[in-house]
Design goal:
The protein is an alpha/beta fold. It has one domain: Alkaline Phosphatase, subunit A. Helix content is 30%, strand content 12%. It has 13 helices and twelve strands. The strands form three sheets. The protein has an eight-stranded mixed β-sheet, with helices on both faces. A two-stranded antiparallel ribbon has the order 1-2. Helix 4 runs parallel beside helix 10, helix 8 runs antiparallel to helix 10 and helix 10 runs parallel beside helix 12.
Length: 463
């Protein structure tokens, strides 16, 4: 029997839906489509945590092999062989005038200072969007800019847009931040045009919502999926089944979130120090409504990251950024015994209780991140896993929130980078090194060759 050969761009199609496939053995090797060179692509992502971290609970005790992880990084223990903790990176371009949080958010992925102005203007496209210009046409979505919270107001003559967005398409245009899992899922898996979420829009009537949802994406492509599965080998059939089960799980959770009017934002952001300020000079803080927003922060993060994993798995995109919250976040984390404003806890003034609260918040973010990495490590791609074919930076543009310093940054790199990253290590650079050196290496992992980005002085070799 002749082996099945299918293209990497094969879609499962149905009425009003088109679903990309995960990587299958039938897409490479002797089964590759005639004349097609099939290579598993590397994907890159930039994960951002606001307000810095409690560094004593972050930094490993010694350089070299990661043995016992520090408190904040302990949730990564099961995937630590895929982790490189990098010390001594700096983001001098995040230093501002009379403020710290706004220029940190605005400059973090741009690699240069943002303009000190209430009208936002950065130096140019951020590193993720630069990558999207080079390779974005190879995928249905050029890049994803993802987040959880809707943002905050600026201060000290800076626009709040700097704190709400790390991804910039141009000097004056941030990438539209996608916060709603339902809208994100439909954009990726229902072929709808991209649109910026309108948090003030009226909820559609039940009939209209049912028509737009048009049942399940999987229901629409069920017949073609079954037909393809019958033609695949045993290993590919198993991968397809796991992929379809994962897709169904995401659909179910998206549906539950849409049906629940209660989102987590109203309670979680109630401690924002500016939430109750009635000042005509400050824009109104918009709290998203519950439709499509899961009831807890952790569920929201997990659902967004599961959709991102599916997007990487199906090659919907190869580039993403994700913000655990906006810079200077005032979110409260009562559910993990860290009440009060995150920002206020980061201004610890050496107080032990604030150190404990901040460490709980930092560990919570790492735990949610680790869950995604564990899932990626279970998705087979060729001779490796999805985790082997991603390169994800995780960190902040601020080190100690009390000092607001932009050097000695808390930063780690996850994934194999397609063979470019050797994990299981703590790399101490020994001297202040521009974070843009890491960005150059991440671009190279994606196949984008650049000799310079921002204030880079050369690539950061992690092999």
């Amino acid at each position: 029997m002749k082996s099945l050969a299918i293209s990497r761009r094969t879609l499962l199609k149905g009425a009003g839906a088109a679903v990309a496939l995960p990587w299958l053995e039938a897409m490479g090797g002797s089964g590759a489509a005639a004349g097609e060179v099939s290579k598993i692509p590397t994907r890159i992502a930039f994960f951002y945590v606001p307000n810095g971290v409690h560094m004593p609970a972050w930094r490993p005790k010694s350089e070299g092999e990661l043995t016992e992880l520090p408190t904040t990084l302990q949730p990564l223990d099961k995937v630590k062989e895929h982790i490189v903790v990098v010390s001594d990176l700096a983001a001098d371009h995040c230093r501002g005038t009379s403020a710290s949080h706004e220029p940190t958010g605005g400059g973090y992925l741009v690699g240069a200072k943002c303009k000190h102005s209430e009208v936002p203007e950065v130096a140019g496209a951020s590193v993720d969007q630069l990558a999207a210009r080079e390779v974005g046409l190879d995928t249905p979505v050029d890049a994803l800019a993802l987040g959880i919270d809707p943002g905050s107001r600026g201060d000290h003559g800076y626009s709040g847009t700097y704190m709400s967005n790390i991804s910039w398409r141009s000097q004056t245009t941030p990438a539209a931040l996608e916060l709603n899992p339902k809208q994100l899922y439909e954009r990726l898996f229902r072929g709808k045009p991209a649109r910026q979420p309108d948090w003030n829009a009226l909820t559609a009537s039940p009939a209209a919502a049912s028509d737009s949802a048009a049942a399940s994406v999987l229901d629409l492509v069920r017949d073609e999926a079954r037909d393809l599965q019958r033609k695949l080998g045993y290993s590919d059939r198993r991968k397809m089944q796991e992929f379809l089960e994962g897709l169904r799980s995401v659909e179910r959770r998206v549906g539950q979130a849409e049906a629940d009017d209660h989102g987590h934002h109203a309670e979680g952001l109630a401690t924002d120090p500016l939430a109750g300020v009635d000042d005509p000079r400050l824009p109104k803080l918009i709290i998203p409504e519950g439709r499509g927003i899961p009831p807890t922060y952790a569920e929201h993060v997990n659902l967004i990251l599961d959709i991102l994993t599916l997007a990487f798995q199906t090659d919907q995109t190869r580039i993403a950024s994700f913000m655990f919250s906006y810079e200077k976040s005032g979110r409260s984390y009562k559910e993990i015994d860290a009440p009060g404003s995150h920002h206020s806890n980061s201004h610890h003034n050496g107080e032990a209780e604030k150190h404990r609260a901040l460490t709980r918040i930092n560990s919570h973010h790492v735990e949610l991140f680790a869950r995604m990495l564990q899932r990626m490590s279970e998705i087979q791609e060729g001779d490796g896993t999805l985790l082997d074919h991603v390169m994800i930076s995780f960190g902040s543009g601020i080190s100690d929130g009390n000092r607001h310093n932009n050097d000695d940054l808390p930063l780690l790199v996850a994934g194999g980078g397609g063979g470019r990253v050797r994990g299981g290590r703590h790399v101490k650079l020994g001297k202040k090194t521009p974070i843009c050196n890491l960005y150059l290496e991440m671009l190279a992992a994606l196949g984008v060759e650049r000799s310079q980005f921002g204030d880079s002085t050369g690539r950061l070799d992690l092999s």
